Amino acid sequence: MITRIVKMKFQEQYISDFKNFTKDIKDIIRNQEGCLHLEILQDISDPHFFFTYSKWNSEEDLNNYRKSDFFRNIWPQTKKWFSEKPQAWSVNSVV
After folding, report:
1. CATH code for the domain of 41
2. pLDDT at 14 over 90
3. Which of 58, 52, 59 is nearest to 38 (CA)?
4. Percent helix, strand and coil across the chain, each to the nearest 5
């Protein structure tokens, strides 16, 4: 199992758009093959920052999702709203 953390910073005028967008797609992501868990988090001290925290059966499952038609359709829309390049990490638990 792997955990994927993505940090995104949004332009002020798109914060509510992103929140509404994620309400519509979160269950679709959660139902992707190999997705075990998904949370979408907002920073409490700077509301421009959001994080996705997801758990996947394997890196292969994550990569299949990232290559899916669904992802290829939603990512361009989300990218338009960023104010900085997102950062992403795939990590394993060590404890």
Report:
1. 3.30.70.100
2. yes
3. 52
4. 40, 35, 25
